[in-house]
């Protein structure tokens, strides 16, 4: 008698592929419009609404899962950057020019803010921004960055300006490369102590 075949692993793999397809489709859909609906996402994924709802109980659930996945990808990208060598100024510039910030996730921030609320979006960013904060703290300890401003205020300013740059790029009021350059220049101007001749590296300007 042939042994019974356990089909659960195959079903689980199918489910994972479907979830990936839905999230990929959501990312494309939000890039076209932050107002994308479940119907539009399902069509882009090549599945039916019933299939989508079999994995996600609402549009906010899709947005939540997509933002978590996107921020995990961003954090992995940050982990590959060399943030320890050179000046903190150079490290900040590399972080702000990382492709995830103003490139791949077009429209996602607007969709996430709309469906999840700004507080939830900020909370989900905490792990990614912890890497930025570590660089800021290093620069403050080394005398590169000003210490007269409270660190929480500095981080709130970075968060707000980064999202403003993303919104300008998403709305096509600024080319993405220019938005990254302006973001880096603006934030480094905020971080540096105007009264000190801080050592610095040239800010990366996209050709």
TrEMBL record:
<keyword id="KW-0238">DNA-binding</keyword>
<feature type="domain" description="HTH tetR-type">
    <location>
        <begin position="16"/>
        <end position="74"/>
    </location>
</feature>
<protein>
    <submittedName>
        <fullName>TetR family transcriptional regulator</fullName>
    </submittedName>
</protein>
<feature type="DNA-binding region" description="H-T-H motif">
    <location>
        <begin position="37"/>
        <end position="56"/>
    </location>
</feature>
<keyword id="KW-0804">Transcription</keyword>
<dbReference type="InterPro" id="IPR001647">
    <property type="entry name" value="HTH_TetR"/>
</dbReference>
<dbReference type="InterPro" id="IPR036271">
    <property type="entry name" value="Tet_transcr_reg_TetR-rel_C_sf"/>
</dbReference>
<dbReference type="InterPro" id="IPR050109">
    <property type="entry name" value="HTH-type_TetR-like_transc_reg"/>
</dbReference>
<dbReference type="InterPro" id="IPR009057">
    <property type="entry name" value="Homeodomain-like_sf"/>
</dbReference>
<keyword id="KW-0805">Transcription regulation</keyword>
<dbReference type="Pfam" id="PF00440">
    <property type="entry name" value="TetR_N"/>
</dbReference>
């Amino acid at each position: 008698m042939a042994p019974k075949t356990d089909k659960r692993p195959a079903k689980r793999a199918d489910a994972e592929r479907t979830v990936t397809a839905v999230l990929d489709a959501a990312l494309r859909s939000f890039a076209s419009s932050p107002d994308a609906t479940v119907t539009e996402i399902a069509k882009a994924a090549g599945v039916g609404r019933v299939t989508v709802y079999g994995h996600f109980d609402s549009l906010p659930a899709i947005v939540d899962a997509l933002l978590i996945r996107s921020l995990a990808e961003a954090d992995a990208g940050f982990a590959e950057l060399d943030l320890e060598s050179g000046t903190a100024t150079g490290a900040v510039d590399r972080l702000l020019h990382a492709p995830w910030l103003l490139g791949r996730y077009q429209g996602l921030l607007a969709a996430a803010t709309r469906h999840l609320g700004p507080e939830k979006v900020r909370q989900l960013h905490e792990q990614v921004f912890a890497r930025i904060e570590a660089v800021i703290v290093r620069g403050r300890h080394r005398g590169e960055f000003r210490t007269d401003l409270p660190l929480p205020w500095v981080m709130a300013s970075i968060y707000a300006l980064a999202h403003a740059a993303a919104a300008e790029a998403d709305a096509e009021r600024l080319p993405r490369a220019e938005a990254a350059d302006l973001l880096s220049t603006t934030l480094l101007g905020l971080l540096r102590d105007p009264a000190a001749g801080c050592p610095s590296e040239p800010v990366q300007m996209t050709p």
